[in-house]
Amino acid sequence: MTSNSLSDKAALRRAEELDTIAAILPIDRRDKLAELLTDQDIETLRHLVNEGMGENTLRALTSDLAYLEAWSFAATGFPLPWPAPEALLLKFVAHHLWQPEQREIDPHHGMPANVEQRLRAQRFLRSSGPHAPDTVRRRLASWSTLTKWRGLTGVFSTPSLKSAIRLAVRATPRPRKRKSAKAVTGDVLAQMLATCAGGNLRDVRDRAILMVAFASGGRRRSEIAGLRREQLSVEPPIAVEGGPALPSLAIHLGRTKTSGTEHDEVVYLSGRPVDALNAWMTAARVESGSIFRKIDRWGNVSKRALEPSAVNQIVKQRAALAGLEPGEFSAHGLRSGYLTEAANRGVPLPEAMEQSRHRSVQQASSYYNSATRRSGRAARLL
Questions:
Q1: Taking the CA of residue 270 as centre, how many other CA atoms within 13 Å lie in the half-sphere pointing to its CB?
Q2: Left, alpha or beta for 77 (phi > 0: left; psi -120 to 50: alpha)?
Q3: Interval 272-328: pLDDT, tens
Q4: Is 189 helix (H, G, I), strand (E, B) or coil?
Q5: What domains, with CATH codes, occur in the chain?
Q6: pTM over 0.90
C-alpha cells in the first residue's frame, strides 16, 4: 500500500471523527480540516467537546488550530510541534507582524512569498499586508490554550516573545476598527423595520430577529441564531399607566461568552418585541427547538436553525433595502446600537448593562462617552 493511500485513509478516518462532533461543533470545510489536523488535534477537540466548552470558543479554537497547522506545514514542512519551541513562536510573529515599507526595501522581510502563496491557495490567507495585532495575539492565545489542554507547558510568556510582539505592533500602528462601522440606533432600526412590512414569512422572521436582538440588550448573532423555544418563559404582563398591559418574556441565555460556567444569564423583553416574536413563532409554527430558522425560495420553513452569519446578512440586506450603505452595518451594530441608544435616552449605565450583560464597565461606558461627547458642549464650541 502506498504512502498516499495510507494518508488518504487517515484523512477519511479523521473526517469521520470530525462528523461525530459536528452536531456540537459545526465545522466548515471539514474535508480540508481532516487533511490538516493530526490525530492528536482531533482527540484534543473531542476532549474539549466532552468538557462542555462553549460552541463559539470551540469554533474559534478550531479555526485558529487549522490556520496554525496550515502555516506550520507551509513554513516548515512539518505539522505543529507540541510544545512549540520559542524560535517557532518568534517566526510566527515575524511572518505576520511586518512593515510594508520595510518589505519594499527588503523582499525577505515578513512572510516569505512561497509561504504566503501556499496559504492563499488553501484559502487561509485572503487579505494582503500584515495581520492585525489582535489576530496574532488571539492565535497565540489559542496556541497556548491548546498546549495546556495537551498537558504540556508552553513558552508563550517569555520576555523575548512579549518584546517581539510589542516592538512589531509599535512599528506597524493600525487604527482600531469597530466590528460595525455604524451603530444600529433607534432611528436606523426603525428604517430597517420599515422594510419588513410586507407580511411574508421572511419579513415576519427578520422583523422578529431585529427587534429581539436589539431589545434584549444587543444580543450577539450566535445567541440569536442559537435561540430555542425552551429558553423562553412567559412573565406576568407589565402594567402601563393609561394604556394596556405589555406582554413580557424572559430569555434564559444559559452560559454566554462572558458569564461563568454555571451561571444562567437572563434578559427580559416587553411590548413590541414580544409581539414580533410571537407573530413569527405562530406563523412558522415554532412550538419547540430552534426559533429562527431558514426559509427556502418557496417559502418553506426549515427545522434547521439559522447560521450566525445569516443574522449578519439579514442586517446588511435590511440596511440595503432601507437605502442605507450595507457595508457600514453588521450584526454587532445592534449590540453597540443598543448601548448608544440607551445613552442617548439617558438610561443609567448599570441598568443598560443588566440587559446587555456586558461585564466590562470600561467597554460598555465607551458607548456612553461617545454619546455624551457628540452632544456635549466641547463638541459645540462654534
A1: 12
A2: left
A3: 999 999 999 999 999 999 999 999 888 899 888 888 889 999 999 999 999 999 988
A4: helix
A5: 3-171 (no CATH), 186-379 (1.10.443.10)
A6: no
